[in-house]
Amino acid sequence: MAMVWDPYGTLKQALWIGGAQWAGKSTVAIILARRYGLTVYRYDYQDARAHDDRRVARRVRLGEPPEGPDQESVWQNTTPKKMAAETLAGFPIRFEWALDDLRALVSGRPIIAEGWGLRPELVAPLLDSPRRMVVLVPSEAFRQHQLRALPRTGPETFIGRVSDPERAQRNRIDRDRLIAEDAVRSAREHGIRVIEVDGSVDAEGVADLVAEQFSPFL
User: Fold this and answer.
1) Where are the beta strands (DSSP E) in 165-211?
2) Which entry of 11, 105, 196, 211 is 20 to 30 Å from 168 by CA?
3) What residue ranges define each of the domains in the chain, with the CATH number in brackets?
C-alpha cells in the first residue's frame, strides 16, 4: 500500500505554546507530554543550536559577517526598543526553520511546539481552531522571581561577553518585556487565549489550564 506524503500533517495536528520568556513554556509542555504521551518540539533549543548553520549561511548570502554583530553592539549599544524591533523582525525567518523541523516529525499523537518565537500572527494561519494555541506571559512579579531563581537569567551570563554585564542584563529584561507585550497584543488580535502566569498556582496548575485549552485534541 503506497503512503501519501503529507508535508503538513504534523503542522495540522500540532499544539502550540507561545508567549514570553520566563513564563514556564518548556516546563508546561514537558508536563503535558508526560501526562498525555505527546512529543515536545523545543523551539528555543533548536533555534540556539540546530539552526545556527542556517543563520550563518543567511548572513553570508546577505553579505554580513558570518559571526554576526559583536556582543557589545547587541546587548549594550542598542536600546531595548530597537532590540525588540530587530528580534520581532527576525521571527518570521526563524519560524520557517522551525516549520521545516516540524514537517520532518511524524507522531501518532499531537506534537506540542513551544517557544517564544512561535508568534500568534505566524501560527494563526496554520490553525483550524484557536484552541490549538495558547500564549503564556509572566506577571511582572513572576518575571522578577524567575530572574532571581533561574541560574541562566542573571547578569553573570554576560561576563566575558560584554564590558558591563549589569547593563546588558537590564537591556535584555526590557527587551523581553516589550516582546511579551507584543505577543499579548497579537494573540488578542487573533483570538488566541493568553494566560498570565503569576505564581499563584504551580507549574502543574498552569499545565491544567493549558490542558483545558487543548482538551479537544488530547
Assistant:
1) 193-197
2) 196
3) 9-217 (3.40.50.300)
Per-residue pLDDT of 73-83, as tens digits, reads 888 889 999 99
Q: What is the CB neighbour count within 10 angstroms for residue 189?
A: 11
For the question of whether the overall pTM of this predicted structure is more than 0.85, the answer is yes
Residues in the chain: 218
Cα dist from 217 to 18, 60, 90, 168, whole Å: 17, 42, 30, 41
Closest listed residue to residue 98, CA positions, set 75, 126, 67: 126
Q: Which residue has the cell 500540532?
A: 14
What does the pLDDT look like over 13-42, one tens digit per residue? 899 999 998 899 999 999 999 999 999 999
